UniProtKB/TrEMBL annotation:
<dbReference type="InterPro" id="IPR018389">
    <property type="entry name" value="DctP_fam"/>
</dbReference>
<dbReference type="GO" id="GO:0055085">
    <property type="term" value="P:transmembrane transport"/>
</dbReference>
<dbReference type="GO" id="GO:0030288">
    <property type="term" value="C:outer membrane-bounded periplasmic space"/>
</dbReference>
<dbReference type="Pfam" id="PF03480">
    <property type="entry name" value="DctP"/>
</dbReference>
<dbReference type="InterPro" id="IPR038404">
    <property type="entry name" value="TRAP_DctP_sf"/>
</dbReference>
<protein>
    <submittedName>
        <fullName>TRAP transporter substrate-binding protein</fullName>
    </submittedName>
</protein>
<dbReference type="InterPro" id="IPR004682">
    <property type="entry name" value="TRAP_DctP"/>
</dbReference>
<dbReference type="GO" id="GO:0030246">
    <property type="term" value="F:carbohydrate binding"/>
</dbReference>
<keyword id="KW-0732">Signal</keyword>
């Protein structure tokens, strides 16, 4: 039996990807591998889930890339703000030679990267005012993941940064400890943040991948045919997240509007891009100038 955990809400990319993974694995493995699937923060935060997988308590998980990068810093290149033009470019990077570069750093940390999926581009929500420029973020307490690149980015944009696990965000928004947060549209909608947030600005500042990850010892203990089945199923699950596209987001945005959230769709991203340009030397130091150039040049 292989345990599979994820922290997504129903209809979230994690749920979509995990469901397709399980379906495909049943088709390929013909009962040789039984999946014990659990969702909804069964072990707490994603950080706790990652630690449980690295220690062998959990066999496999679908995790936000920004959480995985705390263990595999090289994967944090996906966190660089405004690095990706659109989802098609991000997919070309994830599925191509650049994506293949991450196999070794994952293995070095006792993990196997089975596939890379899509959570989506992240956007800012808050309870105070529309965000149309970095100036609008001044003085707002914005929750970000406990991730250095996320924190330095929002400090550069002028926000008061509050690192926090996502499991705590709804209650913190509700009681006013924070003013806003940032996440993909699907996460905003499936987590019902419209109940505690008035404004959503489609800034698209970070692209958020999903990593389909397994404990290396568990993976290596499987027979070669079962390893291949696990990889194929993970790739199918990842593909399902990529195929969950613009139409789904449009539907969710309309639901958010009907629920009373003001959606600021036309955001001029250039002032945001300009505000984080001073961080480029730091990103080059962390991830390599050549790798960043290679990603930006990907069609």
């Amino acid at each position: 039996m292989v345990s599979l955990l994820y922290n997504g809400s129903p209809q979230s990319p994690q749920q979509i990807g995990s469901d397709e993974f399980r379906r495909k694995l049943a088709e390929i493995a013909q009962g040789r591998i039984i999946i014990d699937e659990r969702a909804g923060n069964a072990l707490g935060s994603e950080t706790a889930l990652l630690a449980a997988m690295r220690s062998g308590v959990v066999d496999m998980a679908t995790l936000s890339g920004s959480v995985v990068s705390s263990a595999v810093p090289e994967f944090g290149v996906f966190d660089v703000p405004f690095l990706f033009r659109d989802a098609a470019q991000a997919k070309a990077v994830a599925d191509g030679p650049v994506g293949a570069l991450f196999a070794k750093p994952f293995a070095d940390k006792g993990l196997v990267l089975l596939a890379i999926g899509k959570q989506g581009f992240r956007n800012v929500t808050n309870s105070k005012r529309p965000i149309r420029s970095p100036a609008d973020l001044q003085g707002l307490k914005i929750r970000v993941l406990p991730n250095e690149v996320y924190q330095m980015t929002f400090k550069a944009l002028g926000a008061e940064v509050v690192p926090m696990e996502f499991t705590l965000v709804y209650s913190a928004l509700k009681d006013g400890r924070i003013d806003g947060q940032e996440n993909p549209v699907m996460t905003i909608a499936t987590s019902h943040l419209e109940e505690v947030q008035k404004y959503a600005s489609l800034t698209g500042h970070f692209f958020a991948p999903i990593a389909f990850v397994a404990n290396r010892d568990v993976f290596q203990a499987l027979k070669p045919a079962d390893q291949a089945a696990l990889i194929a199923a993970a790739k199918a699950g990842a593909e399902a997240t990529w195929q969950s596209g613009a139409a789904d987001e449009t539907k969710k945005l309309e639901e958010l509007r009907k629920a009373g959230m003001e959606i600021i769709e036309k955001v001029d991203r250039q002032p945001f891009i300009d505000a984080v340009k001073p961080l480029e030397p730091e990103f080059e130091k962390r991830f390599g100038k050549d790798l960043l150039a290679r990603i930006r040049a990907t069609p």
